[in-house]
Amino acid sequence: MFHRKLTALDYHNPSAFDCTDDTQYRNCVVWLEDQKIRHYKIEDRGNLRNIPSSDWPEAYQKYLQDLNCPFGAQEKQESVDWLMGLAVRYEYGDNVDKYKNCEPLAAFSNSNTAVVDPLFNLDGDSPDFKAGVTALANILKIQRHDDYLVMLKAIRILIQDKLSPEAITKASHKQEGIPVALDKHVLGFDTGDATLNEAAQILRLLHIEELRELQTRINEAIVAVQAIIADPKTDHRLGKVRLMRFGESWKLTCFCWIPHGGLRVKWISSD
Q: What PANTHER family does the entry give (predicted)?
């Protein structure tokens, strides 16, 4: 999760960084402040540099507040990732000319590559982007993910399925349900708990209802296709008359091609 940013920042050992190790975590925070962020004056960094101290979490919390970080000290992964993103932004600001002339990756420089995903051009490492996605996820009760783009895609899916005008219109039409006696439906298995059995029966009935809705849509698709190919009109101008032999007899036969329907054969006379 942190390897790419730490590598870009020239961290001494990005592959071995373990966020769950308190010593490594605190050392990384101090390194980011000393080498990249430099928000505090050197003489004001004493509490943050005192890594073994039991008061370090309080100093870290104050440090995050001074930086206007949207995360707290308890959110270790999110806060240190935010600090790394801030450090990358400062690093770029200090060396604009250096990074401005970097060659783009071949995969992105290919003019023939069509970018269809609107999330492609978003800066996933931007602190503002992460703060905004996190705020949306909290409002919509979406579980957090290490990849903020994945979390944003989940937000987009939820909005499309539940908050789009079509979804709201559909939800506003309340449908009266039909009372169902669960004891008249055989579950087919026993969980050993009456409450679980009832829950399983309800889930089975809901699943059957979904299957019925799916079958209805399939039937509608079949009807739509049949409307195109059914009741064909014969174009007699395309017909041809031939004398054909069927067994021991000869029959005068008319062949007509029917659009979407294939070949129609009509016997005119026999022998």
A: CLE
DSSP symbols for 196-226: HHHHHHHHHHHHHHHHHHHHHHHHHHHHHHH
Q: How far is CA 64 from CA 11, 23, 39, 79, 161, in A?
A: 21, 18, 11, 8, 36
Q: Name the residue ranges covered by the structural domains of the chain.
A: 3-100, 106-163, 182-229, 236-270
Residues 17-59 pLDDT 10s: 888 888 999 999 999 999 989 898 988 899 999 999 999 999 9
* Three-state DSSP state, 117: coil
Cα Rg of the chain (Å, integer):
34
How far from chain centre, in Å, is Cα 5? 24
SS3 161: helix
